[in-house]
Amino acid sequence: xxxxxxxxxxxxxxxxxxxxxxxxxxxxxxxxxxxxxxxxxxxxxxxxxxxxxxxxxxxxxxxxxxxxxxxxxxxxxxxxxxxxxxxxxxxxxxxxxxxxxxxxxxxxxxxxxxxxxxxxxxxxxxxxxxxxxxxxxxxxxxxxxxxxxxxxxxxxxxxxxxxxxxxxxxxxxxxxxxxxxxxxxxxxxxxxxxxxxxxxxxxxxxxxxxxxxxxxxxxxxxxxxxxxxxxxxxxxxxxxxxxxxxxxxxxxxxx
Length: 255
Hints:
This protein has one domain. The protein is built from 10 helices and 4 strands, in the order H-H-H-H-E-E-H-H-E-H-H-H-H-E. The protein starts with 8 loop residues before the first helix and ends with a strand. By secondary structure, the chain is mainly α. The strands form 2 sheets. The protein has a two-stranded antiparallel sheet with strand order 1-2. A two-stranded antiparallel ribbon has the order 3-4. A hairpin with a 6-residue loop joins strand 1 and strand 2. The model has no long low-confidence stretch (mean pLDDT 80).
């Protein structure tokens, strides 16, 4: 089937169902869910993806027998949202890691509004979020996301009922994200904890030592140096996370 064939009345239902799933996934997927990108642009990209995928995606029933009812539309939209949210959570593990570093370094005292993420965060979180976004595009993460979206249609055909995993699989997915965030932040957080212990010992030995005036700048400088030194390691960890985009759905949906 070609794109012109989608305009036939018998194939309109197929295209609309694919478009609903694709637009739902693109609306909350990695990068596309940023507030800086208008909703209309996200929907337009999802519509273009649907035009490319609709002629080749499998269907649970013949295309001419597809029903275009509220239940089918809601089901396709829910599948797309599940995939988009799961992909975003996997990619945003770096934000969780950076938040832990910001908190331990004391940057949360000066948290500012970030126009990219749409919420207040510290400078390390803003930096690592922007770094992850650039790395995501440089490593063709958007291509991996589209390939994973195509695999979603192979696992759950159009108008097919997804076979979701149990609570154990969902818990395992969130645990993997937390472990990834912890692995990225643990070296720096551990270093800052050691610095806290050293400053506490110095403050105990010399009560006239102003811990707030001297300790906070020391921790901030130490955190910035550690982030700069470990940036190549963080990049390799992010590359591994981005490469796992294609395996997001098999964790949550049984084939």
